[in-house]
Amino acid sequence: MVNYLEYQLNAHNCISIRNEVFDDIRGQRTGTKGWYTVHVFGWGRWIGTTILLLPEVRWEHIYNSNLDLIAPPPGTKNELPGASDNGLRHSQLTLASDIIWFF
Question: Structural domain tally of the chain?
Fold first, then answer.
C-alpha cells in the first residue's frame, strides 16, 4: 500500500510526501523477509524549464519478530539472513538526490 501527497508551492518548487507499507514475503525485494514501512519527504526545484533537482530524505523500518528480541540468549546473534549488517538494525535513513535534464 502506498500513499502520495504532493503540493506545488509556486511555479518552481513543489514538495512530495510518500508513505508505503509492504510485506516482503520471501525477501525477494529487500533481501530480508518481513513487514516494512517507508516514509519519504522530497522537494522538487525547477531551474529554468529543462533542469529539475529532486533531493529527498527516506526513512525505512522493518517490523519482524526476529528483530524484536531485545536481549538474545548468550552466544546467539539477533540477525536476519541476507541483511547487510547481519540484521542488527531495524531502520535506515537515506539522503539522496536526482538531477533530471529534459531535452
Answer: 1
